[in-house]
Design a protein that fits this description.
Length: 270
């Protein structure tokens, strides 16, 4: 199978979790605290992935300067775009508590929600395609982390959209479009950036990582903390460790190291 097609399919797979989450949120009555807990877990997963996969990869490729500049640039770009969208009706796009405005309450908020969902998901997908450059295998940790974090994103947003009287057609057309856009972004990440230097690729990876971290701080973590409060950190740690363990397994750590690692964790809590 052509690598560009692999990139597109991996991106589509990760993005499809948004549809799964949206389906769960729209058709099932899930308590707000459970939604928030899942959001906290997904946040921990993504923080682990961007720490041990994206930022580390950027540093190994291009060094500290390219990584730092890209990381800050990604945060600035995302924060600026998010600030604009918050004033257009997309401030609470990840919230499930009924604070999302309806189209009647805030004309144009539906488009702002769609754009907000797009800028939340695209950076994650680009790095999947970047990971395939040079004939490398896809980073399963990154794909799994994005997939796991997309479920609570789609779930919480769909619950909020339903409470704001958004139609079933709107919700699934939105998340279906974002899932397809994720596949396209992953394809673009591979196809159009393959010829660039390691420093440039490092900067782009770091930009995506900075945007992801800003997205977490601005949208996912506030939603989680609003409902689970003091348990937010604990649940995020569980998500972080899950992705960290996956990372160690993918890198080929032997079983004795894995057992020792989890033994230390268990002992520390006894």
């Amino acid at each position: 199978m052509a690598i560009w097609l692999q990139a597109a399919l991996w991106g589509l797979l990760a993005g499809s979790a948004l549809l799964i989450g949206a389906g769960l949120g729209y058709f099932m009555r899930i308590p707000d605290r459970v939604v928030a807990g899942i959001m906290a877990f997904g946040s921990g997963v993504l923080i682990s992935a961007l720490s041990f996969e994206l930022v580390e990869e950027a540093y190994n490729q291009g060094g500290f300067s390219a990584t730092a500049i890209g990381f800050v640039a990604g945060a600035v770009i995302y924060s600026g775009a998010n600030w604009i969208l918050t004033h257009k009706g997309a401030k609470h796009r990840k919230r499930s508590n009924g604070t999302q405005p309806s189209e009647q309450e805030d004309a144009g908020s539906g488009l702002a929600l769609a754009i907000g969902a797009l800028i939340d998901g695209i950076p994650e997908s680009i790095v999947i395609g970047l990971g395939l450059i040079g004939g490398a295998n896809v980073s399963m940790v990154t794909v799994i982390a994005i997939f796991l974090s997309n479920i609570p994103e789609g779930l919480s947003s769909a619950v909020g959209m339903k409470k704001a009287n958004r139609s079933l057609r709107y919700v699934f057309l939105l998340w279906g479009s974002i899932a397809i856009a994720s596949g396209i972004a992953s394809w673009l990440g591979y196809s159009f950036l393959s010829g660039y230097s390691p420093e440039v690729l490092a900067g782009i990876t770091a930009i995506a990582a900075g945007a992801i971290l800003s997205m977490l701080a601005d949208t996912m973590i506030p939603e989680a903390f609003e409902k689970v409060h003091n348990f937010t950190g604990l649940i995020m740690v569980a998500g972080f460790l899950t992705a960290y363990l996956l990372s160690k397994m993918e890198s080929g750590g032997d079983d004795s190291q894995t057992v020792a690692f989890w033994s230390e964790i268990v002992i520390s809590y006894l």
